[in-house]
Write a structure and sequence with these properties.
CATH superfamily: Alpha-ketoglutarate-dependent dioxygenase AlkB-like
Number of helices: 2
CATH architecture: Sandwich
Bound molecules: N-(carboxycarbonyl)-S-(naphthalen-2-ylmethyl)-L-cysteine, fe (iii) ion
Strand order of the largest sheet: 1-2-11-8-13-6-3
Largest sheet: 7 strands, antiparallel
Number of strands: 13
Helix content: 10-25%
Strand content: 25-35%
CATH class: Mainly Beta
């Protein structure tokens, strides 16, 4: 029977997308407001910026990060840096809540004992996308990556081990968590252009946290 709370999003059953790849729909819904507040605190110390790429371009996704190291790109290449190149200061520390949500999600997907030391924070305005790529700047590919989506929805594109492999499309909503490990860890993936919108928590943006073990 329909009731007053039918419109309140709630967690759904986990879904395997590929061997080692899990979607946990709504798994971060309860923590989303606290996660968003923490993003604001991190960005106050380490502002979102559009990093340079080695090819001479600029990332259209705005990024910042936290943890012992965070992913950076500039004219010299991609790497994990212990300091924010923009301020010279160490990145803000990884909030306990980021660590807890990620390690709990990883455990649910079969990766018990995941201890991330790094979080890249991506911010998408409407129209912004992320092209197909692999995440291969981490030291240990046996460690999974946990991604938390907040705010505006987006289409997640995931292919396979080769760039030319067929691409599947999965809608990602506010509060969804993805866990990528095992055989899927090096699969190509990207994000389709974010559509115009206004989210009650995040306004005109989509945020994505990727919790990683960099070292
Ligand atoms: C599959 N971020 O930061 S998250 C990235 O939504 C990145 O901002 C996207 O790709 C985003 O590198 C996608 C989902 C994700 C993250 C890491 C993966 C999927 C992955 C690593 C390996 C395979
Ligand atoms: Fe990626």
């Amino acid at each position: 029977m329909a009731d007053l709370f039918d419109h309140v999003p709630s967690p759904q059953a986990p879904r395997v997308l590929a061997p080692g790849a899990w979607l946990l729909p709504g798994a971060a819904l309860e923590q989303a407001p606290a996660l968003f507040r923490l993003i604001g605190e991190i960005a106050a110390a380490a502002p979102f910026r559009h990093m340079r790429t080695p090819g001479g371009g600029q990332m259209s996704v705005a990024m910042t990060g936290c943890g012992d190291r965070s992913w950076v790109t500039d004219g010299k290449g991609y790497r994990y840096s212990p300091t924010d190149p923009q301020t010279g200061a160490p990145w803000p520390s990884l909030p306990h809540l980021f660590h807890d949500v990620a390690s709990r999600a990883a455990a649910e997907a079969g990766f018990a004992g995941f201890t991330p030391d790094s979080c890249l924070i991506n911010r998408y305005a409407p129209g912004i996308r992320m092209g197909l790529h692999q995440d291969r700047d981490e030291r240990d590919f046996t460690q999974p990556i946990v991604s938390i989506s907040l705010g505006l929805p987006a289409m997640f594109l995931f292919g396979g081990p080769r760039r030319a492999d067929p691409v599947q499309r999965i809608g990602l909503n506010h509060g969804d968590i993805l866990v990528w490990g095992g055989p899927a860890r090096l699969f190509h993936h990207g994000i389709g252009p974010v559509r115009d919108g206004e989210h009650p928590l995040t306004g005109p943006f989509r945020f994505n946290l990727t919790l990683r073990r960099a070292c």
